[in-house]
Amino acid sequence: MITLPRNAQLWLPGYLRNRLSAKSPSRGSRVWVAIADHWEPCGGGATDEVAAERVARWVKHWPEIANRHADFTGRAPQYTFYYPQEEYRGEILDALAKMKQAGIADVDVHIHHDGEGQQNFVDRMSGYIETLVTRHGLLRQSNGRTVFGFIHGNWALDNSRPDGKWCGLNNEITLLRNLGCYADFTMPSGSSPTQSRTVNSIYWVCDDPLKPRSYDYGVPVKPGAPGKGDLLMITGPFGLRWAERLVPRVETGEIASQDLPSAYRIERWLELAPRLGNDIFIKLYTHGAQDRNVGEADAQPDTKPISRVDLGQAPRHACDCKAGAGQEHPGHRKQTGAEAVGKRPTDETKREIQEPGHREDQRNRAARGGEVPLQRFNEGAERVRAAKSDEGDGKRAGDDEPAVENPRARVH
């Protein structure tokens, strides 16, 4: 008897369709790597002193990493900190703002909420956005308004949990659109009941404000075509991992101390990631402020903690391609991105988006990328390069459900 992963009924049909229509990465492909860090230095009940130590570690070591590397255009990698509204500390955002000004980091919006109601959500979000812009000089402007990327705490985007916890808003996608969100980076959530039915795709969704989970289906982005929905979904690699242990597991692109990159995982990311033509978009995620995922740089100066090891060379070694690190999100590119995603849909295209079964092999020019705080990266990259020489482009594929996050502890 075959035992399927938890909640496979949500994603398995879409995953099978995606794999049947997928193409192998070609030599000469350009890879864009985005790191969506659910960065919560105050999480887990941390004291102000512990939070300050976590921030100081990143302020010290990330510039060292970023300044050693550049993409093929000569641009330094940008690491994306999704900082939670409920952990707001002015001094911490000031530290992140300095790294953004140096061109090596960016900050976007993260929030945890649990049934407080629409007005509470709008007030918290709008106040936070205004503070990020006016006090810290963060976020971006597009067509005269502030825009931002978003990650939902506890994976519960658009009231997607069956029990209704950790959200409570069926119209959350509409609210995010009105607040200026140009793209959501929450998915995939693995074996969680919040996992979207569409996988390995960059696609537009249209909100049904009376029902949850409006992100389950959408219209895949096509280069040069106008946007067809209320919100852009940029998803990370999702699939089964067949190697590395006896029982297959779900791959979600998570970087963690218990699940570090390997040659096999890097190949699997390349195989699963959304594509637009020869461009491959790998959106990974981590909880980079957690002590277990960072290491002890100061206590053990001769070792490389996770926060001091980069992933910038992985795609280049893995497929002999040009790694597109440090680029902007699609909504902020002056030409191709604006053409692809900058227009809102008509009523006719809104009807189209409600129909499932769209092909998922077209993707948007997605996220800025860069380097990830990961241990043992260089070894994995070298193994991939060697494997490519010896075996050509053959591949195969897997992660457990992300730990459920307590809104107070903010560790998911």
Notes on the protein architecture:
The chain is α/β, with parallel strands linked by helices. The protein has one domain. The protein contains 11 helices and 15 strands. The chain has helices at 8-21, 48-66, 90-101, 118-134, 172-179, 263-272, 291-294, 314-319, 336-341, 347-353, 377-391; strands at residues 30-38, 79-84, 105-111, 140-142, 145-152, 181-184, 202-205, 219-220, 231-234, 239-241, 249-251, 254-255, 275-276, 279-286, 322-323. Helix 2 (48-66) runs parallel beside helix 3 (90-101). The protein is globular, with a radius of gyration of 20 Å. Residues 296-412 have low confidence and may be disordered.
Percent helix range:
25-40%
Mean pLDDT: 78
Q: Quote the distance from N terminus to C terminus.
A: 31 Å
Structural class: alpha/beta
Helices and strands, in N-to-C order? Answer: HEHEHEHEEHEEEEEEEHEEHHEHHH
Would you count the extended β strands for me? 15
Can you tell me the residue ranges where pLDDT is under 50 for at least 5 consecutive residues?
A: 296-412
Number of helices: 11
- Counting structural domains, the number is 1
Please compute the radius of gyration using only Cα atoms: 20 Å
Q: Strand share of the residues? A: 15-25%
User: What is the 3D shape?
Assistant: globular
The major pleated sheet works out as: 13 strands, mixed
